[in-house]
Specification:
- By secondary structure, this protein is of the alpha/beta class.
- Helix 1 packs across helix 2.
- The longest helix is centred in the N-terminal third of the chain and has 17 residues.
- The structure holds zinc ion (ZN).
- Zinc ion binds next to loops.
């Protein structure tokens, strides 16, 4: 880091550099933008960062993102609570919701099983999901983990845990390219995958 800058400016550049996709040049550009910005604009950014860390928590039911104990989707009386769509990340909920074809509720796992990366089933919210399925009037569990090896493996593992519940377990259709992710799939592709979902054997 250049020493010609005042220490506080260096610190801001260093913080920006930690963000994904931001190299040293971009970090410098962002820091100078903040430096020149109106105080109110810069403080609004600082406030938004603080609020997102202070106010966003995990929904007690689905573990998705929420500002309340129970998220908007779980507390919506129009939602079909007998269908639970299982996704890896909160971003997947947003991608699926954008299709407008979902009436179900969700369960956010917090990732996928990947023993080589040290991610075991106990690191995810699988226990909570099994508990939900066993205690509720659940009729269908829709596996919407990513269509890659880790996502498929996670879906199969969970379906094996739920087999004896008699609940119908489906997987989003293979319209989604293998190796792709829910997050980046187009709305049309996701809608097709939702409508063409098949029962997991
Ligand atoms: Zn929820």
């Amino acid at each position: 880091m250049s020493t010609v800058y005042p220490e506080t400016l260096n610190r801001l550049i260093e913080e920006f550099e930690k963000l994904p996709g931001i190299g040293p040049k971009s970090a410098e550009r962002l820091a100078f933008y903040i430096l020149k910005a109106e105080p109110a604009e810069a403080m609004a950014l600082a406030g938004a960062i603080r609020d997102v860390k202070n106010k966003i928590k995990r929904c007690e039911i689905c573990t998705g993102l929420s500002e309340e104990a129970i998220c908007q989707i779980c507390s919506d009386p129009r939602r079909d609570k007998s269908s639970i769509c299982v996704v890896e990340q909160p971003k997947d909920v947003i991608a699926l919701e954008k299709t407008g074809s979902c009436k179900w509720v969700y369960h956010v796992l917090g990732g996928h099983i990947a023993p080589l990366e040290g991610i075991e089933p106990s690191d995810l919210t699988i226990d909570k999901l099994v508990e939900r399925v066993r205690s509720g009037n659940v009729k269908e569990v829709i596996m919407a983990t990513n269509p890659n090896m880790a996502g498929d493996g996670t879906a199969l593992y969970i379906s094996s845990l739920l087999r004896d519940t008699g609940v119908k377990i489906t997987r989003l259709a293979r319209g989604l390219a293998t190796g792709s992710t829910i997050e980046y799939a187009s709305g049309k592709m996701l809608t097709d995958a939702i409508n063409g979902r098949q029962e997991l054997e």
